[in-house]
Amino acid sequence: MSNDAALIQKKRLTTMFAIDAVCFVLAGVAIIGHVAFKQGWLMPVFLVAIAVGLGAQIWFILGWMKAAKAEEEGKTS
């Protein structure tokens, strides 16, 4: 992986960790509020937090695959 691509992936990784940390806390608070305090509107918040966290991970993996493919094409050229 080129130095430029590695830097981009490092930024993607940091961004993904930040998004996942926020979503983890938000999902935890939402599910506790839903179960313990009977707040029905918190279940969609929980589900959206889980979906966004998963989406951030997919975004990172797709970027990694794209960088690996670009590096592979660069080696064969």
In words, what does this structure look like?
Helix content is 90%, strand content 0%. Helix 1 (3-36) runs antiparallel to helix 2 (42-76). The protein has two helices and no strands. The model has no long low-confidence stretch (mean pLDDT 93). By secondary structure, it is mainly α.
Radius of gyration: 18 Å
Given as residue ranges, the uncertain stretches (5+ residues, pLDDT < 50) are: none
Q: How many alpha or pi helices?
A: 2
Which sheet architecture does the biggest sheet show?
Answer: none
Measured distance between first and last alpha carbons? 15 Å
Q: What is the structural class?
A: mainly alpha
Mean pLDDT, rounded to whole units?
93
Count all strands and give the number. Answer: 0
Binned strand content: under 5%
* Helix content percent band: over 70%
Order of SSEs: HH
Any idea what the shape is?
elongated
Summarize the structure.
With 77 residues, the protein is mainly α. The chain contains two helices and no strands.
